[in-house]
Design a protein that fits this description.
alpha/beta; Rossmann fold; GMP Synthetase, Chain A, domain 3; five-stranded mixed beta sheet; 17 helices; 27 strands
Length: 551
């Protein structure tokens, strides 16, 4: 049997060929702690031994609950080297979710690191569980990271798994119901990481900033994983407050984000330069290039040559706005069940904006008669952990996975287009079905809007519930109403009669992970939003642009 090129074998290769090269760069109190390839392999091998000495054995589940940091990656290596299975948990998860995942996965140990709410974690982690603290302020644990490393010898023979062995179980963010445990084999993980590495040409000179949750498939298998296989440098963020500084320090050569944060970047630019003025300046040939370069440098993208967006559909208007700045964002699509990127607009083509491009090498995609995207390929997950019936119903007889996403092939653009989630479609009181995503995309052309959710199940007509961008919150109300009124009229002009919006409702509070209205990857939780605003959207408003504060 050919040996698999696992991530820890790739690490061993880099450790042998360039042991003193920087690999993991972790800011601590404003200074960078650097871990070389040689040091990373040594620490991971020592921690693998330590896990065994704690009484754990091959196949045992080990959880990781922490914000992104160098030790998160090293713990992941160590768990695999010891032949165990990693269970990543979102650092923003509530106590109930943490307790559920630890119990459902049958975890026997947990690594714990930096957290925003340590009290929540302290409540959810059983005292019977072996706990290991990363070297940052965190909850009290039975063991300390550095003590275990100092007291253990490097594992002599790291695990050499078979391709179908379980590497990790990814628990979905649980936007609806209990999180599902997505079982990922070594074959699927290796495929997911390497197909992305080849797609974007990650190499030894690349620099990446890791800041999206490592518990999510996008960060772990579509960004950090490809960087590991490509031999690049991985930088981390110390805190939310230091993000702009950390971004400029890393000077990434490739940068991936989610729609919510791309909109934040856009709003940050608009807070310094009015949208109309920026459009005017960019239209001047000899000035536009200089302005675009200054804006890119100001965002921290002066060295970046590859950009990506994933986890949720992004507005074509947002992509075009960045394109005019020379920031060509390749929209990509994938999910936990497909081990990362399955379809992408790579290499970037402006004519494909609004689509997710074409399938990556080795992956097949087709559209069902019902309009659902079906996918087959080596990156597919093995099963839903302890849910055989759900696993069985999730696949067609010929091995295609039901993604739950609706889509279509756009022959003119030569790419697949996401049109929404099957479960997000709702029926109005008129008995007509409405797909919210395309409507939200049209509304997002207005830079005053930062968050949008179209809802209307059982209502005479749909309503757009929106959150204003930060710059917009300081504008006179009459200016906002005029702008939103024009956007509403333009949007409705492109919709069927049953799809037309009755109102745009401006709500007071931003939607965040903290108030439970966004998933850890910053996607809106439609069910939570509908519950929160149900009584409000049911009201009859006198004006087309309505305000929660007036209700």
């Amino acid at each position: 049997m050919n040996e698999l090129l696992t991530a820890h074998r790739a690490l061993a290769g880099w450790s042998a060929s360039m042991p003193d090269r920087e690999f993991l760069l972790q800011p601590v109190d404003g200074r960078l702690n650097v871990t070389t390839f040689g040091e990373a392999e040594e620490q991971a091998r020592r921690m693998a031994t330590a896990l065994t000495e704690l009484g754990l054995g091959p196949g045992d589940k080990v959880a990781i609950l922490a914000k992104n940091c160098a030790e998160w990656v090293l713990a992941d290596f160590a768990i695999a080297m010891a032949g165990m299975v990693s269970i990543p948990i979102y650092p923003t998860a509530n106590a109930d979710t943490i307790a559920y995942i630890l119990g459902h996965s049958e975890a026997r140990a947990i690594f714990v690191g930096k957290l925003d709410d340590p009290d929540t974690v302290r409540e959810a982690v059983p005292r019977t569980l072996q706990s290991i603290a990363f070297p940052y302020p965190t909850i009290e644990c039975q063991h300390q990271w550095q003590d275990l490393i100092d007291g253990a010898a490097p594992v002599a023979s790291p695990n050499e798994p078979a391709e179908d062995d379980v590497m990790t179980i990814l628990y979905t963010s649980g936007s609806t119901g209990r999180p599902k445990g997505v079982v990922i084999s070594y074959r699927a993980y290796i495929y997911g990481c390497n197909v992305t590495r080849d797609l974007v040409d990650f190499g030894t000179e690349d620099r990446l900033l890791s800041y999206l949750p490592l518990a999510h498939v996008t960060e772990r298998m579509a960004l950090v994983g490809p960087s590991i296989y490509g031999g690049g440098r991985i930088y981390f963020v110390e805190s939310l407050d230091t993000f702009p500084h950390d971004l400029k320090t890393a000077a990434p050569t490739a940068f991936g984000s989610v729609p919510r944060l791309w909109v934040k970047f856009q709003a940050g630019v608009h807070s310094k330069v009015a949208p109309g003025k920026l459009r005017f300046l960019l239209a001047i040939p000899w000035v536009g290039r200089s302005i675009a370069r200054k804006v890119r440098d100001g965002m921290g993208f002066g060295s970046c040559t590859r950009f990506a967006s994933g986890t949720a559909p992004i507005s074509p208007h947002t992509l075009m706005w960045f394109h005019r700045l020379g920031v060509d964002i390749s929209e990509a699509w994938g999910m936990s069940e497909t081990s990362g990127v399955s379809c992408a607009n790579v290499p970037f083509e402006a004519g494909r904006i609004g689509t997710i491009g074409v399938p990556v090498e080795g992956t097949e995609i087709k559209i069902s008669d019902e309009g659902e995207i079906l996918i087959r390929g080596p990156g597919l997950f093995t099963e839903y952990f302890k849910q055989p019936e759900l696993t069985s119903s999730s696949f067609t007889d010929d091995g295609f996975f039901h993604t739950g996403d609706k889509g279509e092939w756009d022959a003119e653009c030569n790419g697949f287009r996401i049109t929404g989630r099957v479960k997000d479609i709702f029926k109005t009181a008129k008995g007509k079905y409405v797909v919210p995503v395309p409507i939200e995309s049209r509304l997002s052309a207005n830079p005053l809007l930062e968050q949008i959710c179209v809802m209307g199940a059982g209502l005479p007509a749909p309503v757009a519930v929106v959150v204003l961008s930060e710059p917009a919150r300081h504008l006179p109300r009459e200016n906002i109403e005029k702008s939103l009124g024009e956007t509403l009229a333009d949007t409705n002009a492109h919709l069927e009669s049953h799809e037309r919006l009755s109102n745009v409702l401006v709500v007071d509070d931003e939607w965040t992970t903290e108030n439970g209205l966004l998933t850890p990857t910053l996607k809106v939780k439609r069910d939570q939003l509908e519950t929160r605003y149900q009584s409000l959207v049911s009201k009859k408003f006198s004006f087309r642009i309505a305000w929660e504060s007036d209700a």
